[in-house]
Design goal:
alpha+beta; Fumarase C, Chain B, domain 1; Chloramphenicol Acetyltransferase; 8-stranded mixed sheet; 6-stranded mixed sheet; 19 helices; about 15% strand; Carn_acyl_trans; carnitine O-palmitoyltransferase activity; acyltransferase; Cho/carn_acyl_trans; CAT-like_dom_sf
């Protein structure tokens, strides 16, 4: 791995942040509220603001000496402090474009080979038989990328400008666990290197450990992986009383009265931490947990044939489909082309996963199914890994890797009756809550830039459509979160861009009333562009506000009146995400993804640009979302209005 160093994350200028916050407030509140915010801002700059800023700079200096940014430890802690069940709060499901694997209908066709866009949403194509060959091919490619990280050889990634990005997020590809603890969880790194690694295969609620790498740390051949998967299917069928091979069966179902292996991860950490601590006193559970920790990744094999939106909703939110505290878990359709990744979000963001999937696509196979090295790695060092055993030491999983694939090892828990009751209750609650979440895919026409006297950013256009849709559906506009990749900075994660600007709101209103002008459109686009540039300079607003609030909370000399700006209702309105949105580019690697909304009345939205369309993947709470039918219906109307306006400019 390259030792190129990303640049340090600066502490943004205080005056810039305060001014930008006030402008964001002006886009979402009434005039009296804005005047109160402006007064609080002036008092903050004249009062405690500069002292808090200086303390934040001092923290930045201390954290830099430890290789971190002033933000990174706080950011990770905030994720690890989440007590709610992770699938219902911060985890994300990313649908992978499966075209590089061909179709489940037999040998890949020429159309499969050249396809760069995902196929239409639908149940997929199938010959009616489970396709373990396709699953084995994907696992083989995924293992090549994960094992490269386990060896510490992941090539340095760069951003589009050629700047090195921070590679910390790649560490989760080596395996490990988020371990629930009282108050704040912790990350447990895997103990194993690349040699003799296992993956976990979920089938109808059971988890089996199967070998995935050889003594040199290279992925096993596709043929060996396929035989392991067949062995898992046979073992699961033998142990399950219900017929799990029928299309449409639910992967979370096991024999009546039994608990799925991953059921406990349906609990939030507040419930799970004491339950797991007690269970790990049993050596059998301790051995299971150690093995779970050292799995390279897990893959759930499903027979479900569903529309993509329902596939995505189930993997994102339903409990027990994956162990929700593992960093990366995959789900692979055996009867359709479904391929998806479930991510525990505390240590990794979408842009890193896009890069990982791209490398899986590039990990070509030799004719005999053996791997070729990932570009940029040293083939001579394939067997060397981080955290390898001492000479002569053999872990249980190493022995298991040498055993016959005819008898895959099932991982099992031994819960007390009290624990089983708690888990059953949590599983039932998780299923009930997941059932209240709806996911929909909406495609709208993408306005074209042909003949226009200005640049048309697809991100800015996507956000303008959302702003216009809010105006159409609600007659007002509430705050929107747009994620910006910040990995070019040391320990960088994301920054928040606030796309609901006064210029965007003014344009949306006049577009609806048919009074919009080119100048207003240009101003709205420029306002979005200015936010992007500020974020990329390290001068975003939301993370800076978080830092100032943390510093204020640590300082006993900062009284409540002095904190008025940080607790101002207008500031709260501008930073409460009615729409939590994000995009990670086109659909070549990640087709779409789903995550829970951050407020009960709001929406979680990923959007993906296509050549002639923009796709929105929306998730909302059925019982609490604000008029979801009206908002979804407003999206095509908003896109049509904007498209007609843009076409008019080009004439």
């Amino acid at each position: 791995m390259s030792t190129a160093a990303p640049k340090p994350l600066p502490v943004p200028p205080l005056e810039h942040t305060v001014e930008a916050v006030v402008r964001a407030v002006g886009a979402v509140v009434d005039a009296p509220t804005l005047r109160a915010t402006e007064a609080a801002a002036r008092a903050f700059l004249a009062g405690p603001g500069p002292a808090l800023q200086e303390r934040l700079r001092q923290r930045a200096t201390r954290e830099a000496s430890a290789g971190r940014s002033w933000l990174s430890a706080w950011w990770l802690r905030d994720y690890l402090a989440v007590r709610k069940p992770l699938p219902l709060s911060t985890n994300v499901a990313f649908q992978i474009n499966p075209s590089f694997l061909g179709s489940t209908c037999g040998e890949p066709t020429d159309a499969d080979a050249v396809e760069t866009e995902p196929r239409d949403a639908g149940p997929g194509r199938t010959d009616g038989a489970p396709d373990v060959g396709r699953a084995a091919r994907f696992i083989h490619r995924a293992a090549a990328v994960h094992l490269t990280q386990a060896r510490g050889q992941t090539p340095q990634e760069t951003d589009p400008r050629g700047n090195p990005v921070d590679m910390t997020q790649w560490e989760c590809l080596a395996g490990g666990l988020r371990h629930p603890r009282p108050g704040v969880d912790e990350i447990l790194a895997p103990r194993a290197g690349a040699a003799h690694r296992e993956i976990g295969v979920f089938r109808v609620g059971r988890l089996y450990a199967v070998p995935v790498s050889d003594a040199d740390g290279a992925p096993l051949p596709v043929s060996a992986l396929a035989e392991s998967l067949r062995a898992v299917l046979r073992a699961a069928a033998r142990k399950t009383e219900q017929d799990q091979e029928a299309p449409g069966s639910r992967v979370s179902v096991v024999a009546p009265g039994a608990l799925p292996f991953a059921a406990a991860s349906a609990l939030g950490s507040g419930e799970l931490a004491p339950l797991l601590a007690e269970a790990l006193q049993d050596p059998r559970n301790a051995a299971t947990y150690a093995r779970l920790r050292d799995l390279l990744f897990t893959a759930t094999l499903t027979d479900e044939v569903l529309e993509d939106a329902e596939h995505l909703r189930r993997l994102a939110f339903e409990p027990s489909r994956v162990w929700a505290l593992r960093p990366i878990s995959y789900e692979i359709g055996l009867r359709d082309d479904w391929l998806c990744l479930h991510a525990e979000h505390s240590t990794v963001d979408g842009a890193t996963l896009v890069a990982a999937i791209r490398r899986m696509q590039e990990a070509a196979e030799d004719a005999d199914g053996s791997p070729q090295p990932i570009p940029g790695t040293d083939p001579a060092e394939t067997g060397r890994g981080v955290g390898q055993s001492a000479a002569g030491e053999k872990r249980p999983e190493e022995t298991a890797c040498r055993e016959s694939t005819q008898d895959p090892a099932e991982l099992m828990w031994h819960w007390s009756e009290a624990a089983r009751a708690t888990i059953r209750d949590g599983l039932a609650r998780g299923l009930q809550e997941a059932g209240k979440l709806e996911t929909a895919i909406i495609r709208v026409p993408r306005p074209t830039a042909e003949g226009l006297p200005l640049k048309l950013s697809v991100d800015a256009v996507s956000q303008l459509i959302l702003t216009v849709a809010q105006q159409l559906a609600y007659g007002r506009t509430r705050a929107v979160y747009e994620a910006v990749d910040m990995r070019e900075y040391r320990a960088g994660r994301t920054e928040c861009l606030r796309p609901v600007t006064p210029e965007a709101v003014a344009f949306a209103r006049t577009l609806i009333s048919e009074d919009a002008t080119l100048d207003m459109f240009s101003e709205a686009l420029e306002a979005h562009r200015s936010w992007v540039k500020a974020c990329k300079r390290g001068e975003g607003v939301d993370r800076h506000l978080l830092g100032l609030r943390r510093i204020a909370a640590e300082g006993r000399d900062v009284d409540a009146p002095a904190r008025a700006f940080l607790e101002d209702p207008g500031v709260a309105a501008a930073t409460t995400d009615f729409l939590s949105t994000t995009s990670i580019g086109g659909a070549q690697q990640i087709v779409r993804y789903a995550f829970a909304p951050t407020v009960p009345e709001g929406f979680g939205i990923s959007y993906t640009p296509h050549l002639e369309a923009i796709e929105y993947c929306l998730t909302w709470h059925r019982d609490t979302a604000d008029a979801p039918e009206e908002f979804l219906a407003a999206l095509p109307r908003a896109a049509t209005l904007l498209g007609e306006f843009v076409r008019g400019l080009g004439q």
